[in-house]
Amino acid sequence: MQGLSEELEAAGVVVDFMAINKDDAVEYQESLAFQADFPMIQDDEKLTIWAKLDGGKDDFFLYHSDGTLALHLPISGTLTTALMDVTGYANMRAAATALK
Q1: 17: pLDDT strictly greater than 80
Q2: How far apart are CA 23 and CA 45, in angstroms?
Q3: What percent of the chain is helix, strand and coil (3-state, nearest 5)?
Q4: In this structure, what DSSP letter does residue 85 have?
Q5: Three-state DSSP class for 20?
Q6: What single-letter DSSP state applies at residue 14?
Q7: 3-state DSSP call for residue 43?
Q8: Per CATH, is 2-98 categorized as 3.40.30.10?
Q9: What does the domain layout of the chain look like in residue ranges?
Q10: Is pTM beyond 0.85 here?
């Protein structure tokens, strides 16, 4: 996601990334935080962020600058969003650019 963030910024698209680590994946928090230079929130039974967002692993949520949800792109959806895939990367870049 860092590469996508830098590419969008160079194109004049302001983005902020954040990851929400699943409540049962605490053991992965340190390695994820090491790989990313954006904020990461650890979900838990009290916060229940994933449940409130009706989100799943590797889903993307794109918000307008006013905080309203623009797109929820589930990993199992019809649009490929896997950033390691050329098509998925292009789809995410296009989705973020469309919100500009």
Answers
A1: yes
A2: 7
A3: 35, 15, 50
A4: S
A5: strand
A6: -
A7: coil
A8: yes
A9: 2-98
A10: no
DSSP 52: H
In angstroms, the CA 22 to CA 88 distance is 22
Contact between 19 and 41 (Cβ < 8 Å) = yes
**What amino acid is encoded at 68 in this protein?**
T
List pLDDT tens digits, range 30-89.
877 777 788 888 899 999 999 999 998 889 999 998 999 999 999 889 999 999 999 999
Structure tokens at 99: 């919100």
Rounded distance between C-alpha atoms, residue 69 and residue 46, angstroms? 23
Asked if 82 and 88 touch (Cβ cutoff 8 Å), the reply is: yes
Copy the structure tokens of residue 15. 């983005």
* Residues 92 and 83 sit within 8 Å (Cβ to Cβ): yes
